[in-house]
Amino acid sequence: MMKLMRREWSLTLAVLLSGTTAAVAGNGRPADRVGSTVPSVALSDSSGKPVDLQSLHGNKATIVVFLSFECPICTSYLQPLGEMFDAYRSKGTAVVGVVVGDDETSADVARQIKEFRITFPVLRDDKHIAADAFGAAITPEAFLLDDKGVIRYRGRIDNRYASRVRQNTQVTNHDLRQALDNLLADKPIATPVTKAVGCAISREQKTLAHTGSVTFYRDVLPIVQNRCQACHRPGEVGPFSLMTYRQAVNWAGDIKDYTQSRRMPPWKPTEGPPFLHERKLADQEIATIASWVDAGTPEGDSHDAPPPRHFVEGWQRGTPDLVLESGDFQVGPSGRDVFRCYVMPTSLPEDKYVTAVEVRPGNSRIAHHALLFLDTMAQGRKLEADENKRPKKADEIDKGPGYFSGMGVGFLPRGSLGGWAPGQISRELPEGTAYFLPKGADVVMQMHYHRDGRLETDRTRVGLYFAKKPIARRFQGIVTAGGQAGFRAFFIPPGANHLRLHGRTWIEQDCDIYSVMPHMHLIGRDIKVTMTPPGGATMTLVHIPDWDYNWQETYFFKEPIHAKAGTKFEVEAFYDNSAANPNNPNNPPKMVTFGEQTTNEMCFGFIGATTDRPGRIRMRFNEQPRNAQRALNRQSSDTRPP
Ligand code: HEC
Q1: Apex CA 109: angle with CA 106 and CA 115, to 5°?
Q2: Is ligand 1 within 6 A of the CB of residue 423?
Q3: Which atom of ligand 1 lies nearest, measured to the CA of 230?
């Protein structure tokens, strides 16, 4: 069966210098302090009570981990660290977390301990005493101390993170645990130093400039308000907040890097017609941020600051005509991302036309995508019933309504109501057009969740706004699907690092096109969707040369584009199925074919269109046999991309 619409989708500061830092022992290298002992440091606990770090040492071993609750990599390790604490406590091993910096008060730390359900002791190092004593510069970084308090290992906990924003799909080295097992077994530690991946510990910058030609309040804050705060504010998807001068200073180096390399704000297309709501910084904005960082982050005068940006809470477009809800779903603190499908009955007695859809994630810390599909044959209900019958394991943490699927919804949907991604604004479909919502249909919503180290709950709501007058032009989909040798089927052999898939679709009547959405899974690298009018020049609708599964969106054109009958739409995409690709879900690589699981691939360009002629848009696909053509025509025109 042709599945066309598989889209996914915290020690107060008195250093009780009980002697100077011990001399370097044995083979330890002074730079990394392995082989040295750490002076006793007095920190404070989350109630503000002074605690000497050494008083928390285990009789055999101690793990000291530097942490920051602002750092998503740290929070993702809190549960695994808790598990190590539980597993090794009886073996004389202690785990102590040290939260560095004064951004968080004792009360903040106490709250976070509760929220993250941390069972091991956590101390506050607000003046970087412990961080300096250990030479720690990154959170999370783990230090393994033996019974004499000598550092025997320092570095990462495991190799889950290839870099700050890239997780390896599989963890192959549990470095901290291996070092601990060897220490407890009196065996040598093979790799006493590894590189910690995480967030920089920013030390007090005494040389902070106060004024300069570029200042925070006058020049930088306006950019940050307009371009970053939509996501980088408390409770939103950005991994840290950019609301205050201090926060901007803490992240200054990264802000400069990420904006100069155009990795932030996230906006993937490099080519295409002008798009609505492009999240692209102007060259001047990037230059302003860079000169502010280079000048030592001058604060300036707070009277120059623009008024705080007001973010609308609640429905942005007013009360919807119909509100659908997912119900409460619980997402565990760590592990792979979750894809969950929810069946939301509309129970409408008559057909409706939907002119706008607004998705309001209940929990923006974890919600990364929502995709909405129409189900007129209760297929989602059946999948949910099957899920409810499935025997549950006692330790299943992810639970609630709905069912699990791969990267799709588990059936061929009758249509789409678009989708949502962080920072995306709900918009009205072009004047005179609407999605068709048949009576009695269910809306099946697929949600993609990131885990954030906490036990989280989400209840996402979807607001539908109906047309107030009849709609002649249904918003439909033109689908172009990539394959090999003119077919939609494809095989991406293991090791292939630049495999091309290609597909073509001709429309057989005039259309107006409004949007484009490319779609691949994890090993997709580069994708381009183009259109070529009969006898005319090829035009790029979208090109994403650095595909990221986490940032797929529907891109709306500023102006609709007219496409004449006979216009060809093409998708061309490249895949990297080599072991060198950190996104490869298979290790070692395996043969990859079409499908909706994480380990399968897809190659689609969905184009949002309307036509004056009643009924569905007629299309012709590749050089496929006629029956496949018919099947594709029947399905694709009904499965409308947003
Ligand atoms: C649409 C939402 C969104 C907007 C707008 C946005 N960010 Fe981000 N940012 C994120 C998310 C989500 C991440 C985490 C990485 C990821 O998922 O790609 C991130 C990561 C980052 C990181 C890397 C953090 C790390 O741990 O490595 C920096 C630096 C950053 N953003 C700066 C900015 C700046 C500066 C702006 C504004 C000019 C901005 N971002 C705008 C969502 C956003």
Answers
A1: 145
A2: yes
A3: 5
CA 36 to chain centre: 39
- Ligand 1 and 238: CB distance under 6 A: yes
Local confidence band at 633 (pLDDT 50, 70, 90 cut-offs):
low
Cβ atoms within 10 Å of 7's Cβ, excluding its own: 26
CA distances from 462 to 466, 505, 528 (A): 13, 32, 31
Residue 232: CB within 6 Å of ligand 1? yes
A 10 A CB-CB count for 21 gives 14
> Residues 521-554: pLDDT tens digits?
889 999 999 999 999 999 999 999 999 887 878 8
Among 214-228, 344-358, 484-498, 529-543, which stretch is predicted with the lowest mean pLDDT? Answer: 484-498
Please indicate whether residue 550, judged by its CB atom, sits closer than 6 Å to ligand 1.
yes
**Residue nearest to ligand 1 atom 12, measured at CA:** 238
CA 64–ligand 1 middle distance (angstroms)? 29
In angstroms, the first-to-last Cα distance of the chain is 22
Please work out whether the CB of residue 258 comes within 6 Å of at least one atom of ligand 1: yes
The CA distance from 120 to 136, in Å, is 20
CB-based contacts of 502, cutoff 8 Å, min separation 6: 482, 483, 484, 570, 571, 572, 573
- Report how far ligand 1's centroid is from the alpha carbon of 247 (Å): 13
Among protein residues, the one whose CA lies closest to atom 16 of ligand 1 = 165
Residue 184 burial class via C-beta count within 10 angstroms: exposed 0-12, middle 13-18, buried 19 and up: middle
Rounded to 10 degrees, the C-alpha dihedral 430/436/441/444 comes to -40
User: What is the distance in A from the centroid of ligand 1 to the CA of 318?
Assistant: 29
Q: Which atom of ligand 1 is nearest to the CA of 265?
A: 41
Give CA angle at 346 (343, 349), nearest 5°.
145
Instruction: Tell me if 198 CB under 6 Å of ligand 1.
Output: no
CB-CB contact of 180 with 144 (8 Å): yes
**Cα–Cα distance between 417 and 374 in angstroms, integer?**
7
Contact criterion met (CB below 8 Å) for 145 and 38: yes
Using alpha carbons only, how large is the chain's radius of gyration in Å? 27
**231 Cβ closer than 6 Å to some ligand 1 atom:** yes
Confidence band for 624, pLDDT divided at 50, 70 and 90? very low
Per-residue pLDDT tens digits for 46-84? 888 999 999 999 999 999 999 998 888 899 899 999 999
Ligand 1 contact, 252 CB (< 6 A): no
Of 447 and 637, more confident: 447
Diameter over CA atoms, the chain = 87
